[in-house]
Amino acid sequence: MKISVVGTGYVGLVSGTCFAETGVIVTCVDIDKEKIEKLKKGIIPIYEPGLETMVKRNVEKERLFFTTDLKESLEGVENVFIAVGTPPDEDGSADLKHVIGVAREIGRSMNSYLLVTTKSTVPIGTAKKIKQAVQEELDKRGVKIPFDVASNPEFLKEGAAIEDFLKPDRIVIGTESEEAQKQMQKLYKPFLLNGHPIVFMDIPSAELTKYAANAMLATRISFMNDIANLCEIVGADVNMVRKGIGSDTRIGNKFIYPGAGYGGSCFPKDVKALIKTAKENSYNLEVLSAVESVNDKQKEIIFDKLLNHFNGDIKGKRIAIWGLSFKPNTDDMREAPSLVVISKLLEAGATVKAYDPVAMEETRHKIGDTILYATDLYDAANDADALVLMTEWQEFRVINYKVLAKILKSKVVFDGRNIYESAEMADEGFTYYSIGRKVVLPIK
Length: 444
Description:
- The protein has 444 residues and is α/β, with parallel strands linked by helices.
- The protein has three domains: 2-201, 3-Layer(aba) Sandwich (Rossmann fold); 211-297, Rossmann fold (3-Layer(aba) Sandwich), CATH 3.40.50.720; 299-433, NAD(P)-binding Rossmann-like Domain (Rossmann fold, 3-Layer(aba) Sandwich), CATH 3.40.50.
- Helix content is 44%, strand content 13%.
- The protein contains 19 helices and 14 strands.
- α5 runs parallel beside α6 (126-141) and α10 packs across α13.
- The longest helix is centred in the middle third of the chain and has 32 residues, at 203-234.
């Protein structure tokens, strides 16, 4: 079986590589010539554990190919996936120009039946626009070539995308023809052998399922952050509250960890897009509007704690930051809470020195040399007036307290992900701020 995947960003590259891993012949297409040449050499443009090895293996096995020529990639192909970006527009809606552009090029290039499948996260009704765009191009050519459209949203977690794709919780597919369903059933058969469910539905429902899933997870995060802030006010411990509600099987313990706000390429963008879709249909998603508002405020909470600790004046202070990416095991800086904290610190006149295991180069692309970049976590903390943890990378979890106490100018730690124990911090002589727990003072 041969397929084509248009777009070699996070979704396209992971999807194409994982399909190739099952024996499918995959051609990944992108207009970026430099990126394609690097991919042919096994140079990966994103950080994702296990992806580089898998790309190299499937290129060597001649199951995975890269090209800038979409027309060439469609020869002998049964299914073409659209996996290009859908960045948020100024009004919060998803920008579909790249998706529709690919659809038009498919219409100009195809010569036999194709199933055109959307892998990008797109608003409800996009499949209709894709179908219309393809048909318009076929009409311009004066040819009648049958084709179908389908929606196959991804549910990949950055940092665990390979595992998620190869061992999915579920596979959601929206189709409108028996032929399309057969095609998708055949393609995903290797993923069903271990009992992973495949859920077929109509296309609008599939398109909405992706947004609804991310919106629900974002809601859980914002809800828990709201509760955490209340815990601090009333003297409760959010960790105890989390354990108490998480043991309820109706609730569970996933996505109820408080922190400094969510970021990344999906949650912020998808929440905005779903709110916009509702407004376009004369409906107000009040819960999601609150979710977005809570998250925007939560991204500032660490800065507010810093400002309060230093009595409203941090001008000239040197702040160390551990972790820049929006979550561990990725270099993705999109909507990262660390960027909000850094921006406010610099605006207030502080100096920032940061360390992240993989995201410092991507941070440079975002904010340049407005901050100092450390060689390791202790280099970042050296001579700092305060230490801020923003991303819960594994290497930050077990630290040398004696070294940290010696190199910090002031023994104060702000933990934006609650990865340290309050009692241990007090025993080690640190003033410790976290999310949803009492401020811990050092034991004299």
